[in-house]
Amino acid sequence: MSILRDLERQKKAIESEIKRLEEKIALYQEELPRLTERLAEIEEVIEHVRQLPRYQQKPTMDSVPQKEE
Fold first, then answer.
1. Distance, CA of 9 to CA of 1 (rounded, Å)
2. Per UniProt, which keywords does this protein have (predicted)?
3. Which of 19, 35, 47, 66 is least enclosed by beta carbons within 10 angstroms?
4. What is the dihedral of CA 19, 24, 29, 30, to 10 degrees?
5. Per-residue b/e over 24-43, b at no fewer than 16 CB within 10 Å?
6. How many Å apart are CA 57 and CA 45, to the nearest integer?
């Protein structure tokens, strides 16, 4: 195979790889706003749930009380 043919083959392979990556980037750019919005929603719910008495952190005890015999 001549050098020129080899270089042309490499060029086509790189062009194909670039096109494939550009398509992936376009898909990720479409997906990113949706995921960012969902993350914000989840963070909002987490903050709301943390305010509920059931989920508020209780003070920790230094030692566990021993069972009386």
1. 11
2. Coiled coil
3. 66
4. 110
5. eeeeeeeeeeeeeeeeeeee
6. 17
